[in-house]
Amino acid sequence: MKRKLLFWGMPAALLAFIVSSCASTEALVIKEQGAFSAGGAVISTEGNFDPHIPFFQPQGGQTRHGDHADVFYQIPVNAKPYSMVFLHGAGQSRRTWQTTPDGREGFQNIFLKKGYSVYLVDQPRRGDAGQSTVSAAIDATPDDQVWFTQFRIGPWPDFYEGVQFPRDEKSLDQFFRQMTPNTGDFDEDIISSGIAAVFDKAGPGILFTHSEGGGPGWQTAIKNENVKAVIALEPAGFPLPHEENSENPQNISMDDFVKLTKIPIIIYFGDNIPANETDIFAQNFWRMVLNAAKEWAETVNRYGGDVTLVHLPEISITGNTHFIMSDLNNQVVAEHIAYWLDEKGLK
Amino acid sequence: MKRKLLFWGMPAALLAFIVSSCASTEALVIKEQGAFSAGGAVISTEGNFDPHIPFFQPQGGQTRHGDHADVFYQIPVNAKPYSMVFLHGAGQSRRTWQTTPDGREGFQNIFLKKGYSVYLVDQPRRGDAGQSTVSAAIDATPDDQVWFTQFRIGPWPDFYEGVQFPRDEKSLDQFFRQMTPNTGDFDEDIISSGIAAVFDKAGPGILFTHSEGGGPGWQTAIKNENVKAVIALEPAGFPLPHEENSENPQNISMDDFVKLTKIPIIIYFGDNIPANETDIFAQNFWRMVLNAAKEWAETVNRYGGDVTLVHLPEISITGNTHFIMSDLNNQVVAEHIAYWLDEKGLK
């Protein structure tokens, strides 16, 4: 308000000069940006280390720091009080949120421009957080077409009609190159501890998860009270208390489950998940996940929770793939999220 | 000049208001930022892909896109005409340039604030560029102390006297966690092709290399004319023409060598590289590299080149480790680089 009044009293030409002197409305004005590692473990070997010995001769008495999350963060000027922490899905890295296959702005820039601080994570044992406390084997067998199909761009080599994915070769090339392998076994407990440590630094904030990141995302919300809301894009797992389901591999205690009833949660699913079985495995797979999500939302809400499930085609937002945050209509989805955050007092 | 004159005519209070309305001089004003993959290869398998089959059943007729570089870039408003591309060393990622172990600003922020566009690379088969066309095994044997010693922080567990490295435990923890493994064999040709492809996008610019990145750095300058200068921090390899040295494994043709005589090059080495042999392997190793660098600089200059070799202690900048860009005095070194760039007309 104060600034508005000041501007009001100025001649138009001077005002124009000020605006052009400052960042344009399109520019990002970053107060602080940097990188850090969060959480992690240390393993060590017996023996005494001798610094005289050449680096290529194996010797004991050493440590290995690994299993941390890797974070790049940006804090805009006049940042909102809530940070946003972004956790990618299977085979992906923070790239998921940085851009889109056709080079438009990703959720990183979109929410920075809305005034949120952003914390972009590579989860433990992935990408720049590659240092692991366990050894690993990486297999380079070609599987791009499997993921194209499983991520519901289309049943390769076809695209779904009206799909919100660019059809040019360059975009598809960029999309395939987003994949990056695990450098140690996927471990939900290790990952959620890493992301919880990110929230120690980020402070009170909103956790975005995608796909396989959904599971560790719920665990992060249980582990750190700084998680004030979860926005889950097609999460692939849903933890229930033993009392509700004794067979769910994601089972948790009632005490932990109750924590998930204390924060607002919104879950998004995209298009091409038909209500009935088809002959394409990927569609049936996601229908089962969507049904599990519906059941989970009902259960959490029955315990006093606040879960909203949005199946995008039901609100006339159509054509979305599994990568809702980088689809051609990602700005539309971002506005829906912004509206929900406003409604929940997290603006 | 125009802006200065406009400011000159304004009352001091209004000027103060404008400055506070704009980004502070400490803030970064980013016109554009994003991420992309550059270069890379595609491998494929025989057969026909059937999209009806579940993702977990192996099948042929597929591709794998890998061996690209992963890039995060930022272009400030009123950017200088030359971009800066940053290539890390062995076991490292772009983190090398993003920050310092004690959380101060890295070369990314320092040179952004000087008005350069920055392109931060994870080289092919490392970090977020983890997708490789070859399989790999990652060994998690503890070796932190080897690298502490080899990177000349000190002969573990000691620090060198006056070393420009923070001595608190938290900083050392962050430093160790910067390491991230190869996800495929190190391949100088693949890496330099990836970085050359980054220069296709970045345009005319300055290449920073560190350590193991030195080798692919020279190759990048040979492969892409957009490389207008190279700033090499303790590079570990030096290519010579066959005519000069028939035994150097980095041998190149005279045609390629001559390309390195056409651009200004500056090479930095840090402290604790004694002129005479000591009982610490790491010190002797770097003395040999420094001597090779001196010889190389003389050879390139004899062919009409413009190589400057700076052994920092000789100009009274002391205590530097192998990580010159993130040492406690990294701002001092950055100013030295800025002065050199100015001298070479690359400001």
What does this entry show, briefly?
Chain A has helices at residues 2-8, 12-21, 95-98, 107-113, 144-150, 169-176, 188-202, 214-223, 254-259, 281-302, 330-343, and strands spanning 28-38, 41-44, 63-66, 69-76, 83-87, 117-122, 136-138, 205-210, 227-233, 264-269, 306-311.
Overview of this structure, please?
The structure is a homodimer. Chain A has one domain (about 25-135, about 140-345): 3-Layer(aba) Sandwich (Rossmann fold), CATH 3.40.50.1820. Mean pLDDT of chain A is about 95; it is low at about 1-25. Chain A has about 350 residues and is of the alpha/beta class. Chain A has eleven helices and eleven strands. Chains A and B meet through helix 2, strand 1, strand 3, strand 7 and helix 5 of A and helix 2, strand 1, strand 3, strand 7 and helix 5 of B.
Main interface: chain pair and counts:
A-B, 95 and 95 residues
The overall pLDDT average of chain A reads: 93
Number of helices, where a helix is a run of at least 4 consecutive DSSP H or I residues of chain A: 11
The largest pleated sheet of chain A is described as:
8 strands, mixed
Outline the secondary-structure elements.
Two copies of one chain form a homodimer.
Chain A lengths: L1 H7 L3 H10 L6 E11 L2 E4 L18 E4 L2 E8 L6 E5 L7 H4 L8 H7 L3 E6 L13 E3 L5 H7 L18 H8 L11 H15 L2 E6 L3 H10 L3 E7 L20 H6 L4 E6 L11 H22 L3 E6 L18 H14 L4
Parallel strand pairs in A: 5-6, 5-8, 8-9, 9-10, 10-11
Antiparallel strand pairs in A: 1-4, 2-3, 4-6
Helix pairs in contact in A: 7-8
